[in-house]
């Protein structure tokens, strides 16, 4: 059944909400010096207009759908379904490697080729008999040691660890983790035992000692059940060639309830965060000034830029306005400064959304037949039904049947090389996610990069024969990839909705305010400013 739109709001309420919104927005935006801006969320879908039609009109670049259609489909169909879907038990638990474990199993040689030297050999320590003591001492050293500021060249030879070596703090192949995270909100809340899906709980109580269940540092800690994927029937243990993590490695895995760990402001900022973005953009996905390069090569840049926009939008949508009072709200100055004032970043968000949506609909038959069993039959039926509503949605099929046409973009003689090049760059980006110095940011960074890798895997998985049957036979996805894919789509859908709803008003006021400030400056001040600017 299609989601119904509540049309019961009277027009009076619409106008009242609109007027109140405009007043609050004007007040909030008047002070550019104010560090943050918070507004009540505008939930009335009739109280906003479309994004500036001159900036965002026509077909989304390299896609097959226009901005207006994307907004309407997202609002009426995709966003409501996705919001429900990500709350289901199947989609809310994400498997990730345990944080700060001291020993890591060696990846396969093919993986190791894509890993790079850690910044210093001293960050890798032999494991002696008394591993615990040495680990503590070594961690203390790692904390004190200043992190090298230079980026290690991504092409440097890889340092293969023997299984008896220890890697400190994290798996970052480029720099040691520098603990730049400031807030408790950076850390991830793992799942308490009573939240796991039933099949997981069964093997949990049989296989693990009660010590694994104790809470550490006041946070609920979940023990790892390595049989979980076997409990979720029908899912394969296969590796994703687009990502750096070895997804077949089931050791040392914990489960995180994504609903308890929303992507939002964490306080992670400064050189550590900047270094990651710089490394991604400069080393792995150059932006190529428009017109200089072919569209295929710009894909990766557009995807990452779109993801970056989405992360910034989530930070702006859920920001810590007052740390002392633990007051959270929207920071619309940040939304404008980081995203809206650069129309390309908004366009890249829409591009990313459509590419991921295309991957999901391309794999519709595969995803429809997958097992969504978690032991809670009522919830599992709901998950299946939501998936079907999304995958075979008549409104979506009528308005935007092929959101992105991958065949048009990367067919041709260079296709295999392009795929390999993209894969190599994408794996580097995936490896960089291990260097994100904030646990919650790393969780969402890794999840979303895995989601993008899964989308690319689907889009590149069929050569020539585009039939659903062929895709079903060729494609192999694992459970975590599907969870990442659908959660990524939901994040992008949230971002598109937020920008669509808030963008026009924020832009109007911010741009009006900027021009008013410019006009207030006297000719002397302007002359002085230009002299200072030139010095
Ligand atoms: C993987 C990852 C996940 C993160 N998750 C979170 C999180 O959940 N919560 C949180 O509070 N912080 C998170 N951060 C930090 C956050 O993204 C910013 O780095 C931080 O808030 C500092 O912002 P900034 O103003 O310095 O600009 P940044 O966002 O760090 O941007 C750095 C530079 O990149 C360029 N740039 C910015 N946006 C785009 C774009 N859309 N397209 C192209 N270029 C762009 C600009 O030149 C900009 O100066 C994350 C960082 C990373 C690397």
UniProtKB/TrEMBL annotation:
The active site is at 438 (nucleophile), 441. One of its GO terms (biological process) is protein folding in endoplasmic reticulum. It is a peripheral membrane protein. FAD binds at residues 264, 266, 277, 305, 308, 338. Its main location: endoplasmic reticulum. It comes from the Eukaryota. Residues 102-129 are annotated as: Disordered. Pfam families: ERO1 (PF04137). Signal peptide: none annotated. The keyword Glycoprotein applies. One of its GO terms (molecular function) is FAD binding. InterPro entries: Ero1, ERO1-like_sf. It is found in: Endoplasmic reticulum membrane. Keywords: Disulfide bond, Electron transport, Endoplasmic reticulum, FAD, Flavoprotein, Glycoprotein, Membrane, Oxidoreductase, Redox-active center, Signal, Transport. Its cofactor is FAD. Belongs to the EROs family. This is Endoplasmic reticulum oxidoreductin 1. It comes from Nyssa sinensis.
């Amino acid at each position: 059944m299609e989601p119904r739109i509540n049309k019961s709001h009277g027009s009076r309420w619409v106008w009242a909400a609109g007027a109140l919104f405009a007043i609050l927005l004007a007040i909030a935006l008047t002070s550019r010096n104010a560090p943050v801006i918070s507004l009540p969320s505008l939930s009335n879908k009739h109280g906003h207009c479309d994004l500036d039609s001159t900036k965002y009109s026509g077909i989304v670049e390299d896609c097959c759908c226009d901005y207006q259609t994307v907004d309407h489909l997202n609002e009426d169909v995709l966003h409501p379904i996705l919001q429900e879907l990500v709350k289901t038990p199947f989609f809310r638990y994400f498997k990730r490697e345990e944080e700060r474990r001291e020993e890591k199993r060696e990846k396969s040689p093919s993986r190791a080729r894509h890993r790079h030297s850690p910044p210093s050999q001293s960050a890798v320590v032999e494991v002696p008999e008394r591993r615990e003591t040495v680990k503590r001492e070594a961690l203390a050293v790692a904390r004190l040691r200043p992190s090298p500021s230079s980026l290690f060249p991504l092409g440097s030879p890889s340092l293969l660890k023997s299984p008896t070596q220890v890697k400190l703090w994290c798996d970052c192949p480029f720099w040691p983790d520098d603990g730049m995270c400031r807030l408790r909100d950076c850390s991830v809340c793992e799942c308490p035992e009573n939240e796991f899906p039933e099949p997981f709980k069964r093997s949990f109580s049989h296989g693990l000692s009660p010590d694994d269940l104790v809470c550490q540092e006041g946070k609920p800690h979940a023990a790892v059940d390595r049989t979980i994927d076997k409990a979720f029937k029908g899912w394969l243990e296969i590796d994703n060639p687009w990502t750096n993590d070895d997804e077949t490695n089931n050791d040392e895995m914990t489960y995180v309830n994504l609903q308890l760990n929303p992507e939002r402001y964490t306080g992670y900022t400064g050189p550590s965060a900047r270094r990651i973005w710089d490394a991604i953009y400069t080393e792995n996905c150059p932006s190529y000034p428009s017109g200089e390069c072919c569209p295929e090569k710009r894909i990766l840049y557009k995807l990452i830029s779109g993801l970056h926009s989405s992360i910034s939008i989530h930070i702006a949508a859920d920001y810590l306005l007052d740390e002392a009072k633990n007051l959270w709200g929207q920071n619309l100055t940040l939304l404008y400064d980081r995203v809206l004032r650069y129309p390309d970043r908004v366009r890249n968000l829409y591009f990313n959304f459509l590419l991921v949506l295309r991957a999901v609909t391309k794999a519709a038959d595969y995803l429809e037949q997958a097992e969504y069993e978690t032991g809670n039959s009522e919830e599992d039926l709901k998950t299946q039904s939501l998936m079907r509503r999304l995958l075979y949605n008549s409104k979506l099929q009528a308005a935007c049947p092929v959101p992105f046409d991958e065949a048009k973009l990367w067919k041709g003689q260079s296709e295999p090389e392009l795929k390999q090049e993209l894969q190599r760059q994408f794996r580097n980006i995936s490896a960089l996610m291990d260097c994100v110095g904030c646990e919650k940011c790393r969780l969402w960074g890794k999840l979303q990069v895995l989601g993008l890798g899964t989308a690319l895997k689907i889009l590149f998985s069929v050569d020539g024969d585009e039939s659903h049957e062929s895709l079903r036979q060729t494609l192999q996805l694992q459970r975590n990839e599907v969870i990442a894919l659908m959660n990524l789509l939901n994040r992008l859908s949230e971002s598109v909705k937020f920008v669509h709803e808030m963008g026009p008003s924020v832009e109007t006021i911010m741009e009006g305010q900027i021009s008013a400030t410019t006009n207030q400056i006297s000719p002397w001040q302007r002359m002085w400013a230009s002299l200072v600017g030139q010095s």
